[in-house]
Write a structure and sequence with these properties.
about 400 residues, alpha+beta, Phosphorylase Kinase, domain 1, Transferase(Phosphotransferase), domain 1, five-stranded antiparallel beta sheet, two-stranded antiparallel sheet, 16 helices
């Protein structure tokens, strides 16, 4: 409590010495608070990120190092200055007004979705080319201003330097074997049996956000590659196409693997783990689903159409799709396979969107997952960047 109370005092001291005033608090979290600031002379707006004293300083030092040379380029937020007051680190950045994805998701058309993903890949390609992984890609960290069609990748607290070398294979101890049973609770969602709950499970640590973590993160391999960012971008992509935000919210690392199995199939997950020297024990065996039909059906469900009795009778889930439907929407309606009725209702865009690209981004095996460089190599050139003429601001460093 005292750590957060002192934030305002330190921010006010920074404002007085640099002719800034606090407009409002934009957000807060375990790291500290973010304020909207305005320069008294130029009237220019800024965002000030003030760390909490409870936050490890290494997180902010890491973010500063990553942004020092890369900020302001290729859809990456620009870091303007860094200051220190007592034991608190303050980061002054460009203020980027943005639209909340949850508010505009249903109105985003196919072209807008493609431009959103394309600009995200532009940022990731630039990071990866400079040997950096973001490791926390998600809609909340990729801001989008719909009016001016501009984008900004933020929050580099988890960013890390990466190596181009392949991830080494290693064996998983038998006591940490993954196990998913066919036991179900009353609502029909799969749960882990008591025998498995007694085992020590692998934890992904504090890196990334649950729901956007790839398989190699979930099983806690010692080395990561830029492929973890591509997987997270793929989850963002399928979120936009399915109009479902968030796409899935696993309770823990093991349930996240279970969700992957229900969508991508048991065989694909087994093979990816086997390539890393891991063994997965899971029942029953699930087939892989068609991502295009999954996006089409979930988009239809997200718009509230599951209450239509006529459609329910036409699209009751088959045995192949029922487990996934219970996982995602807690309903038995709308089959991911027999959705011919929905095919006629949807525009041609769902048949022309790059679902092949989505499948390559969500490749369970990181070794065959597509790269940002390859995805943007043959894409149309990005729009002419909007240049903002900077206003000189006098900042005092401590």
């Amino acid at each position: 409590l005292f750590a957060f109370m002192d934030v305002a005092l330190d921010v006010k001291r920074f404002c007085i010495s640099n002719k800034l005033k606090i407009i409002k608090c934009l957000g807060s979290g375990g790291f500290g608070k973010v304020y909207l600031m305005q320069h008294l002379t130029s009237k220019r707006f800024f965002a000030l990120k003030a760390c909490s004293r409870l936050t490890k300083q290494d997180v902010f030092v890491n973010e500063i190092k990553m942004l020092k040379s890369l900020s302001g380029k290729c859809n990456i937020i620009r870091l303007l200055a860094v200051s220190r007051i007592r034991c608190r680190i303050l980061l002054l950045m460009d203020y980027f007004p943005y639209d909340s994805l949850s508010e505009i998701l249903y109105s985003m058309d196919f072209e807008e979705i493609k431009m959103y993903i394309y600009n995200l890949l532009i940022a990731l390609r630039y990071l990866h080319a400079n040997g950096i992984m973001h490791r926390d890609v998600k809609p909340a960290n990729f801001l989008y201003n719909r009016n001016i069609r501009k984008y900004a990748l933020i929050d580099f607290g988890f960013a890390e330097h990466c190596s181009v070398k392949q991830m080494p294979k290693f064996a998983m101890p038998s006591m940490m074997q993954w196990s998913i049973s066919d036991h179900q609770c009353k609502c029909g969602i799969q749960t882990v049996c008591n025998h498995c709950l007694k085992k020590r499970t692998a934890i992904a640590g504090n890196m990334g956000t649950r729901g956007y973590q790839s398989l190699e993160i979930l099983i806690s391999v010692p080395h990561y590659t830029p492929a973890v960012d591509i997987w997270a971008a793929g989850i963002v992509f399928i979120t936009l196409l399915s109009k479902t935000y968030p796409f899935w919210v696993p309770e823990n690392d093991l349930s996240a693997v279970g969700l992957m199995i229900s969508l991508f199939g048991t065989k694909n997950v087994h093979n990816a783990l086997a390539n890393l020297g891991y063994k997965l024990i899971s029942q029953p065996v699930y087939p892989s689903l068609d991502l295009r039909k999954v996006c089409q059906t979930m988009s239809w469900l997200s718009c509230g159409n599951s209450d239509n009795e006529e459609q329910q009778q036409l699209t009751v889930s088959c045995e192949k799709c029922a487990p996934a439907m219970r996982q995602f929407h807690k309903t038995k309606y709308c089959c991911f396979c027999r959705n011919e009725e929905l095919e006629r209702k949807y525009p041609a865009g769902f048949r022309t969107l790059p679902f092949d690209l989505l499948r390559k981004m969500l490749d369970i095996d990181y070794q065959t997952r597509i790269t940002a460089e390859l995805m943007t190599a043959k894409s149309s050139p990005s729009p002419t960047p909007h240049t903002v003429v900077g206003v000189a601001v006098s900042l005092r460093f401590y």
